[in-house]
Design brief:
The protein has 752 residues and is an all-alpha fold. It has helices at 2-19, 38-54, 62-69, 72-84, 88-100, 105-133, 140-161, 183-197, 203-239, 244-268, 270-281, 289-316, 320-345, 347-366, 369-389, 402-417, 425-432, 435-447, 451-463, 468-496, 503-524, 546-560, 568-601, 606-628, 632-643, 651-676, 681-705, 708-727, 730-750, and strands at 166-168, 175-177, 529-531, 538-540. Among the domains are: 35-124; 222-392, no CATH class. Keywords: Signal.
Length: 752
C-alpha cells in the first residue's frame, strides 16, 4: 500500500508538472508561454490550507504535511524559486524535516506557513508584472489566463491581507491595532480593473490602467506583510516577559514575514534592514518597536523617492503611460507609511501628503513638467520632515577625551588645507604637530607602524615642492590609518575588559573609538565598487550604507556597557564585529575606487592615474593584514600592482586576490563555529556574525561570477545556520556547512 501511495504521488506530481510552465523569463517576469492553469493553482491553494490545519495539530504530523506539499504546491514553489532566484522549496523541505525530527516543530511550522504565503505572494507579483510587460504583444486570452491564476493564488493569502493596521502606541513603546485598510477588497477591485482593461478597447488608457493596478495590487500585498511584521513584533513585546515559547514563535513569524518584503526595504535602507533582521532573530528583549517601524519607514521612503525620480524622467521624455505609472508607484509605496507618518507628524501632514501624491498623478496624466516638479518638491519636503522624526541609530559622546578629540579637529583642518591652492605646508605641519602627532606616534608604538615617519616625510616633500599631489594623498590616507587603528584598539579593549572595567571606564574607551571613527566616516559613506561585466575595470555598485551600519553598531554596543543584561557581553562582541569588519570593507572599497581611477586615466591622464595609484596603495596598507594573513602571495601581488607600472594594474586580479584573502577569514569562521557549536553557543553565533559580514564583502562579485541564485543560496545558508545554532539542530548545521563549503569552493575556482 505504501509503495502504491508513493507511486501515485509521483505520478500526480508528473501530471501536475506537465500542466505547469517552464520559467522562460528573467527576473520576476513571466513569458506568455509560462502560465500554469488555474486548476493547478487551486490545487496548490487547497494543499496550503490543509497544511494550515495540520500545523495546528499536536503533535504535528510531518509526514502528512510532506504529502500535502508534494505536487502542485511544491511545483508552484519551485516555479517561484526559479523565477526569483530564491530557495523557498529547500526552506520548506528543511522545516518539514525539522518537524519529523522534533526539532522545534512549532517554529518549523511557522517557517512552512509563512514561506508558503511568500510563494503565493510572489506568484501574484510575477504574474501581474508579466501582464504589464506583455500587454502590447500578448493576446487578451493569454493575459486573462495569467490574471485568473493571480486571483486563484490570492485565495491562499487573502486572510493575511485582510488584517487591520498595526501602529505605534502613544509612548512609542509598543504596537496596537489601528483601523482596517481593507487591502483584500482593494486587491480584488484592482483585479477587476485589470480584467476590464485586458479587453484592450482603448489600448493606451487600458495600459495605464494595468500599470496603476500593478502597483495597487503589489503594494497592497507588500503593505499587508509590512503589517504582518508589526503584528508579530507587537506579540513579541506583549509576551516576552511571560511566555518565552510563545515569544519565540511570534518572533519567528515576524522574521519570515519580513523576508517577504526584505528586498524592498533593503534597497533603500540596507543597514537598517540588517538592524531589523538582528532584532527579529536575536534576543527578544532587544526588540524595540519604534526602531523597527523607523527602519521600515526609511526603507520605503527610498522607494517613494525612486518612483518620483522615475516619474521625473518619464515627464522629460514625454512618456505619459510611464509617468502615470511611476506616480502611482510613489502613491502606493507612500501609503504604506501613512499611518506611522500620522502618528509622528499629525493628520494634517498626512492629508497634505495624500493630496500631493494625487497632484503628482494628475500632473503625470497631463504631462505637466511644472506641476510635477511642484508636487515632487512638496512630497519630498513632507518625507524629509517624516524621516527626521524616525528613531534611527545615532551616537552621543558622553565621556570626552582631549587627545582624540583634538587629533580629530586637527585632521579635519588638514583635510581642508590640502584642498586649498596654493598648498600651505607650514600650516599642515602646524596642525599635525601636537595631539594628532602624539596619537599617531602612540599607535605606531603599539602596532609597530611607521605612520608618523610617512606623514613627516610627506610634509617635507610638500615643503620642497616635490610631487605635492602625491604627498598630500600619503598624508590623508596615512592619518586615516591612524584613526582606523584607534577604532580597532579601543573597541577591542572595551570588549576584552568588559568584565573588569566599570561602566564609566568602558564608556570612555567606546567614546574614544567613536571619536576616532568620526575622522574616517566619510570613507565608509561611499557606494560599493565591483568588477565590470567584462572584468576589465571597476564600476559603481549599490550603496551598502556602511557608515550607518557602523554607527548603529556603536549605538548597540554602548547600550551593553551598563552590564544589566546577561546578553550584554555578546551584544558588545557583535557590535565590535559590525564596526571592525564593515570599516575594513570600506577601505577595500576605497582600494577598488582608486583602481577604477587608475584604469580610466592611465592612458590620457598619467599624473591623475599615478595619484590614484598612491591613494590605492595607502588605502591597502590600512587593511593589508585582513588579506595577507590568509593570502600572503596574493597580497604581495596587490601591492606590486599598486606600486609598479600603471599598465600592470589588472582589476580582475586585484578583486580576486582580495576575495581569496577574505575566503580565508570565512573558513576560519566556519572552523570556529564547529569548535564552539556544542559547548559555547555565543561564540558560535559570534563566529557566524563574522562569517556573514565577511561574505558581504564579496557577495556581489560571487553573484557576477556564479549566479544570483548562488548568492541567494549562500545568504540563506548563513541565515539558516543561525537557526540551527539557536535550536541545537546538529544535523541541519552539518548540512548547511556542506552548502557553504561547496559554494565557497566553486567561487574560489572562478577567481582569476
Amino acid at each position: 500500500m505504501f509503495l502504491f501511495k508513493g507511486f501515485a504521488n509521483s505520478l500526480r506530481k508528473v501530471l501536475l508538472m506537465s500542466l505547469c510552465f517552464m520559467v522562460l523569463g528573467i527576473g520576476n517576469t513571466l513569458t506568455a508561454a509560462a502560465a500554469s492553469n488555474v486548476s493547478v493553482i487551486e490545487s496548490a491553494v487547497t494543499a496550503f490550507k490543509t497544511i494550515g490545519t495540520l500545523r495546528k495539530e499536536f503533535p504535528i504530523n510531518g509526514d502528512a504535511i510532506a504529502a500535502e506539499y508534494a505536487g502542485a504546491l511544491q511545483t508552484l514553489t519551485q516555479e517561484v524559486d526559479t523565477a526569483n532566484s530564491l530557495t523557498l522549496d529547500s526552506d520548506v523541505l528543511a522545516a518539514i524535516d525539522d518537524i519529523k525530527n522534533d526539532y522545534a516543530p512549532r517554529l518549523a511550522a511557522q517557517v512552512i506557513d509563512k514561506t508558503l504565503q511568500r510563494v503565493f505572494y510572489q506568484s501574484i507579483w510575477n504574474r501581474i508584472a508579466a501582464i504589464r510587460d506583455q500587454f502590447e504583444t500578448g493576446t487578451s486570452d493569454v493575459l486573462t489566463a495569467m490574471l485568473d491564476e493571480s486571483v486563484a493564488a490570492f485565495q491562499a493569502i487573502s486572510g493575511t491581507v485582510a488584517r487591520e493596521n498595526q501602529i505605534l502606541t502613544a509612548d512609542r513603546q509598543a504596537l496596537e491595532a489601528g483601523s482596517n485598510p481593507g487591502l483584500d477588497a482593494e486587491v480584488n477591485d484592482h483585479f477587476s480593473r485589470v480584467r476590464t482593461a485586458l479587453n484592450k478597447s482603448n489600448p493606451e488608457e487600458d495600459f495605464i490602467t494595468v500599470q496603476i493596478a500593478r502597483y495597487g495590487i503589489r503594494m497592497s500585498l507588500t503593505r499587508a506583510y509590512y503589517i504582518g511584521v508589526l503584528r508579530e513584533v507587537a506579540g513579541v513585546i506583549e509576551q516576552r516577559g511571560f511566555d518565552p515559547d510563545e515569544t519565540s514563535v511570534l518572533q519567528k513569524e515576524g522574521e519570515i514575514f519580513y523576508r517577504t518584503i526584505e528586498s524592498l526595504v533593503a534597497r533603500g535602507n540596507p543597514a537598517g534592514s540588517l538592524r531589523i533582521k538582528a532584532q527579529l532573530t536575536g534576543d527578544p528583549s532587544k526588540v524595540v518597536a519604534d526602531e523597527i517601524v523607523s527602519e521600515l519607514g526609511k526603507g520605503f521612503i527610498g522607494r517613494v523617492v525612486g518612483e518620483m525620480n522615475g516619474q521625473a524622467r518619464a515627464i522629460t521624455e514625454k512618456d505619459r503611460p510611464h509617468a502615470v505609472a511611476e506616480a502611482a508607484g510613489a502613491k502606493y509605496y507612500a501609503r504604506i507609511l501613512l499611518p506611522d507618518l500620522e502618528v509622528r507628524l499629525g493628520a494634517a501632514d498626512r492629508s497634505n501628503l495624500e493630496n500631493e501624491l494625487e497632484n503628482l498623478l494628475t500632473a503625470s496624466n497631463e504631462l505637466s513638467a511644472s506641476k510635477s516638479e511642484q508636487a515632487r518638491d512638496a512630497i519630498s519636503a513632507i518625507l524629509t520632515e517624516y524621516e527626521n522624526t524616525l528613531n534611527r541609530a545615532n551616537y552621543e559622546i558622553t565621556q570626552h577625551t582631549a587627545i582624540v578629540e583634538n587629533a580629530l579637529a586637527n585632521y579635519q583642518a588638514i583635510d581642508a588645507l590640502r584642498n586649498q591652492a596654493p598648498i600651505d605646508a607650514d600650516a599642515i605641519a602646524a596642525k599635525y604637530a601636537g595631539d594628532l602627532q602624539q596619537l599617531t606616534q602612540l599607535v605606531d608604538q603599539i602596532y609597530g607602524q611607521t605612520v608618523d615617519q610617512n606623514v613627516s616625510a610627506a610634509i617635507a616633500q610638500i615643503k620642497a615642492g616635490d610631487q605635492v599631489a602625491l604627498a598630500l594623498q600619503v598624508i590623508d590616507k596615512s592619518l586615516q590609518k591612524t584613526f582606523a587603528l584607534v577604532v580597532y584598539d579601543r573597541a577591542t579593549l572595551a570588549l576584552a575588559q568588559f568584565d573588569n572595567f566599570t561602566t564609566d571606564e568602558l564608556t570612555l574607551e567606546w567614546d574614544r573609538a567613536y571619536t576616532a571613527y568620526s575622522a574616517i566616516a566619510k570613507t565608509a559613506n561611499k557606494e560599493d565598487k565591483v568588477l565590470s561585466a567584462d572584468k576589465q575595470s571597476i564600476v559603481s555598485g549599490s550603496d551598502p550604507d556602511l557608515d550607518y551600519q557602523i554607527t548603529a553598531a556603536f549605538a548597540l554596543g554602548k547600550r551593553a556597557l551598563d552590564k544589566t543584561d546577561t546578553g550584554d557581553a555578546l551584544s558588545l562582541a557583535l557590535a565590535r564585529e559590525n564596526i571592525v569588519i564593515p570599516l575594513a570593507r570600506s577601505f577595500l572599497v576605497g582600494v577598488l575606487r582608486e583602481v577604477e581611477g587608475i584604469i580610466e586615466n592611465r592612458t590620457d591622464e598619467v599624473d591623475e592615474a599615478r595619484e590614484k595609484q598612491i591613494e590605492g596603495e595607502y588605502f591597502y596598507r590600512i587593511v593589508e593584514n585582513f588579506i595577507a594573513q590568509d593570502n600572503p602571495s596574493g597580497s604581495s601581488q596587490i601591492k606590486a600592482q599598486l606600486t609598479g607600472d600603471l599598465s600592470s594594474v589588472v582589476a580582475d586580479q586585484i578583486v580576486s586576490e582580495i576575495s581569496r584573502g577574505i575566503l580565508g577569514q570565512i573558513r576560519r569562521s566556519i572552523q570556529q563555529i564547529e569548535v564552539n557549536y556544542i559547548n559555547d553557543k555565543n561564540q558560535a553565533l559570534l563566529a557566524l556574525e563574522r562569517l556573514s559580514l565577511y561574505s558581504g564583502i564579496f557577495s556581489s562579485d560571487l553573484s557576477q561570477r556564479l549566479s544570483v541564485s548562488k548568492r541567494s543560496n549562500l545568504e540563506n545558508a548563513i541565515r539558516d545556520l543561525k537557526d540551527a545554532i539557536n535550536t541545537g539542530n546538529a544535523d541541519r548545521a552539518v548540512a548547511l556547512r556542506s552548502i557553504l563549503t561547496a559554494i565557497i569552493v566553486e567561487y574560489e575556482s572562478s577567481l582569476l
